[in-house]
Design a protein that fits this description.
- The complex is a heterodimer of chains A (94) and B (481).
- Helix content of chain A is 18%, strand content 46%.
- Chain A has 94 residues and is an alpha+beta fold.
- The longest helix of chain B has 34 residues.
- The chains are: A alpha+beta (94), B mainly alpha (481).
- At the A-B interface, strand 1, strand 3, strand 4 and helix 1 of A face helix 14, helix 15 and helix 17 of B.
- Chain A: It holds the Pfam family bPH_2.
Chain lengths: 94, 481
């Protein structure tokens, strides 16, 4: 159970982001019924824009851009940092 | 022997009576002025206790409209707000609100901090003769009510630290500035704005701060579906919510009639009457709207109708006739329901309906004074001019509207700035996992109810073992590396 806990979490408008060891999940909808999971190998870039209502943008290698809008800046930064750390740890940037 | 006993008893009675006689000679009977002051002070203290008791009403209302997993955080927040609010208002808020600011007086008071001033220091309250301590107790209860309103919209997802930091700014600066403008001899008082007990100062201020915070905070998880349609997140205990409404209703008998800050020669019974009539009419207005909109009578909305009406009559209670208070209350109930539906539909998640009840109720109540204020009551109160329907023209209505825009705009902008700074630094809301688990356990380490009774939302990774794993069963895209 413990290893299923997310390493980092944040909430934007109508969307929750969870970062796990190997994937990023975007949860939305009534009682979190819609879950989009993106493997860290597929993540090309994670970027944060804005200060008060920050937007976290996750780009994937198949051309998708997933925006999480109106996040708190500390949450967005933590998620970006966690994604980058996990990719480095796993050597996924080579 | 019998003579000796009689003599002894006579001596003992004399000894017992002498101190009483001596004291009676030292203390003259109280004068009429002293008796009047004592009765006035007693009334103000009783009214202050009633208004402070409204915190229990807010607690029950918020508990009733929250889910079980968050009730402990609600009551913890109420207690913390009372503590911070009382100390901040004592330290600087009361002085900023009611002292004479000299050249700055149109904007803010500048003396009497830490309650060190005397009756002359607090010029904004010089019209009442009760002691400064009684004035403070009554006014700090008002500040606490305004602060409590802020959080009704931000339930179930806000960090405890945010409550505490914002309370310092609100009770110490934001509320006192607006209070000074209208009640402390500031620029709106100079225009003759009529806000007898605080539809604008207390309720609109609280609601505008709440709106600013809610816009930055965002809705609770699950409030809106993927298409952005609002979903109902029901509170867990309607009897508690209604108990809260009734406690608030009773507390309002301190709030409005107590604002006379005098019992002798004041019309507090008339004010209690208008207050009560408006509340009753507000329930009916909200029930009617509820039935017309959904074909059933919503208990929570009926309670919010009473609150909206009480908020609305707060400004007008001393200026209007009883029939007008019924009109004001009924319209407030209708407006509250309409605004609640609108606010929900534009993506602002307000679990308690505070923006509709306190915000729109405050706006309508402040405007209604400019419509329904009678010449006789305006003359006896000595503030402003009669309303539009009594031949007063648009002058008073314009002043009321100016007050709404100025106070509402000021509170919204400053609160937005404070909440924005908090969001950019520590963040306003708890982590999603904590929100789904409930704030009781994540923020305070205990449950509000027995653990077996708590229903938390299921979630990835930390849900109960009996709950299906939504990741593995519903993964829709991508894949793990």
């Amino acid at each position: 159970m413990e290893q299923n806990r997310p390493l980092a979490q944040g909430a934007g408008t109508n969307l929750v982001v969870n970062v796990y060891n190997d994937r990023v999940e975007f949860v939305s909808g009534w009682q979190g019924q819609t879950v989009v999971a993106v493997g860290l190998r597929q993540v090309v870039d994670a970027a944060v824009r804005g200060v008060i209502n920050a937007t976290l943008t996750v780009e994937t290698n198949d051309g998708r851009r997933i925006n999480v809008e109106r996040m708190a800046l500390p949450d967005a930064r933590q998620i970006k940092a966690t994604i980058e750390r996990q990719k480095k740890t796993a050597g996924l940037y080579e | 022997m019998r003579r000796f006993v009689l003599l002894t008893m006579a001596v003992l009675m004399l000894v017992a009576a002498v101190p009483g006689l001596a004291l009676a000679q030292e203390e003259a009977p109280p004068t009429v002025e002293e008796m009047v002051l004592a009765v006035d002070t007693l009334w103000v203290i009783v009214a202050a206790m009633l208004v402070i008791f409204m915190q229990a009403g807010f607690a029950m209302l918020e508990v009733g409209f929250s889910r079980m997993k968050n009730v402990g955080s609600v009551v913890a927040k109420i207690l913390a707000m009372m503590g911070i609010g009382i100390v901040m208002f004592w330290a600087i808020g009361f002085g900023l609100t009611f002292s004479d600011g000299g050249g700055l007086n149109p904007i803010i008071g500048t003396g009497g901090f830490f309650l060190t001033g005397d009756a002359e220091t607090y010029a904004g309250l010089a019209w009442t003769a009760v002691p400064v301590s009684a004035k403070f107790l009554f006014q700090v209860a008002f500040a606490l009510v305004s602060l409590a309103i802020v959080w009704g919209t931000m339930l179930e997802r806000t960090k405890f630290a945010v409550y505490c930091i914002f309370a310092v700014v609100f009770a110490g600066l934001i509320y006192p500035i607006v209070g000074h403008w209208i009640w402390g001899g500031g620029w709106l008082a100079g225009f003759g704005m009529q806000d007898f007990a605080g539809s604008t100062v207390v309720h609109l201020s609280g609601a505008m701060a709440a709106l600013a915070g809610t816009l930055l905070l965002g809705p609770r998880i699950g409030k809106y579906d993927d298409e952005g349609r609002p979903q109902s997140i029901a509170g867990h205990n309607m009897p508690l919510a209604v108990l809260g409404v009734i406690i608030l209703w009773i507390g309002w008998f301190g709030f409005n009639p107590g604002s006379t800050m005098a019992a002798v020669g004041a019309s507090f019974a008339d004010i209690a009457l208008t207050t009560n009539l408006a509340a009753g009419a507000g329930v009916l207005g909200a029930m009617l709207m509820s039935y017309a909109y959904r074909r059933h009578v919503d208990v929570g909305m009926a309670g919010n109708g009473a609150i909206a009406a009480l908020v609305a009559i707060t400004a007008a209670c001393a200026f209007v006739d009883p029939w007008a208070s019924i009109v004001i209350g009924f319209v407030a109930g209708i407006i509250m329901y309409s605004v609640l539906i609108f606010v929900d539909s534009i993506g602002v998640d307000d679990p308690l309906g505070a923006i509709a009840a306190h915000g729109m109720g405050g706006i309508w109540g402040t405007l209604s004074t400019g419509l329904f204020a009678t010449p006789a009551l305006v003359e006896s109160t000595g503030v402003g001019n009669p309303g539009l329907f009594y031949g007063g023209g648009f002058a008073q209505l314009g002043v009321q509207a100016l007050g709404i825009v100025a106070c509402g705009g000021f509170v919204f902008l400053v609160s937005y700035g404070v909440f924005a700074a908090l969001k950019a630094t520590i963040g306003l809301r708890v982590k999603p996992e904590q929100e789904l688990d409930g704030l009781d356990i994540s923020e305070h380490g205990v449950y509000g109810y027995s653990e077996q009774l708590i229903a938390t939302d299921y979630q990835n990774g930390s849900g109960g073992s009996s709950i299906p794993d939504p990741i593995n069963s519903r993964r829709t895209a991508g894949g793990t590396a």
